[in-house]
Structure formats: C-alpha cells, structure tokens
Amino acid sequence: MNTQTPAEELRHKAVLGAAYQAFISYGFRKTSMDEIAQRAGLSRPALYQYFRNKDDIARQLLQAYYDTAAQAVSAALADDGPCAQVLERALHAQGGGVIEPVFTSAHGRELLDASTQLGADIKQTGEARLAAIYADWLKKGDARGRIGLHGQPPDQIAATLLGAAYGIKMSADSYASYTARLSQLARMIGAGLAAAATP
Questions:
Q1: Which of the chain's ends, N or C, has fewer CB atoms near its CB within 10 Å?
Q2: Segment (H or E) for 63
Q3: What is d(CA 87, CA 152) in angstroms, rounded to the nearest whole number?
C-alpha cells in the first residue's frame, strides 16, 4: 500500500530521475549518494529518507521501468490497427525513453547489468506481467478473428516474443540497430499472426 502523499510521490520520482541521469553520466559504480542528492536538490540525509543505498535505487528504477512499460504496452495494444503495426508500437513503447541511453551512454550497459543483477526478482515478475499483457491481447485478437493462434498457447507466444525482444536489446550494437531489428521482429510476427487469422 502506497502511503506517500502526491507531493512525496513527485519528489520520489524526481529523485529516481536524478539518480538515473547520474548513473548514465558516471556509471553505477562511480556514482555516489552525494552526487545523486546534489542532482536531486536534496541533502544526503534527506536522500536516505527515500532510499537505503544505491542498490535500493537501482531496484526501484527497475520496478519503475516495468510499471511504466506495462502501462505503455497496454495502451499500445488497445489500438485496433493492423496487427504488425500495433505490435511494433507496443514493442517500442515497452522500451520507452530509458533504452536509448543504454546504447548512447558509455555507462548504459553497466546500469542495465547492475539493475538486472540486483533486481532479478523484479525482472522476473515484470517480464511475467508484460507476457500476461501480450498473451491477453493475443487471446482477444484470436477470438475476434484478427489474428490466428490455431491452438498455440498465447502465453508461450508472448514469452517467445519477449525473449526475442530481450535478445535484440542485448545483442544490438547501436540504438538505431535495436529499433530497426525490433520493428523487423514485430512485422514478421505480426504478419504471421494476421495471415493465420480465420477468414
């Protein structure tokens, strides 16, 4: 249960944003709590009212990412457009504005590795939540005759889709390559699902 006031929630988000920018600028290991406090306009003692340490911040950043991604993907999948286009928008929305710095910053990969390592449980829960959102969209699309599953389990298709998207994120050598390959994945899978729809 969230007991923060709206003002406290805004401050909490602002501190997370300041921490993210510090991690991207200096790297997770080299960023100090003092640096984060300074960027957030807080004293160091005040910062500790929000977070226990850097590990806690990394975990909360990861949780915030999955919360935002779930909302963005749900919104994108609510569109009634062509399957491939809807899927493409959803996959791009899933990354939001946090993926580009992973590729453009010298410290992006370090932050990605640190948050994933420190928040393995959050990642597992977050990925399961996203998979459930995609699976629900697949079921509804199949029921409406917009896509064809032909008995294939929607949760397995969703897991495969997310696994492929994660593989692209981890292997792409630039943000442009990442977005291009993500679009290609969405178009291939979307076209296949649409082609298999019941006439």
A1: N
A2: helix 54-77
A3: 18
- Six-digit token string for 173: 């050598």
Q: Give the Cα separation of 56 and 78 in Å (integer).
A: 33
Hey, what domains does the chain have and what are their CATH numbers? 54-195 (1.10.357)
Query: Is the Cα dihedral 57, 61, 66, 70 positive or negative?
Result: positive
Tokens representing 109? 């990969």
| One-letter amino acid of 28 | F
* 25-72 pLDDT per residue, tens: 999 999 999 999 999 999 999 999 889 999 999 999 999 999 999 999
What's the full length of the chain, in residues? 199
What separation, in Å, do the N-terminal and C-terminal C-alpha atoms of the chain show? 47
| Cα distances (angstroms) measured from residue 24 to each of 27, 48, 105, 139, 169 | 6, 21, 6, 38, 17
- Contact present, 178 and 168 (Cβ < 8 Å): yes
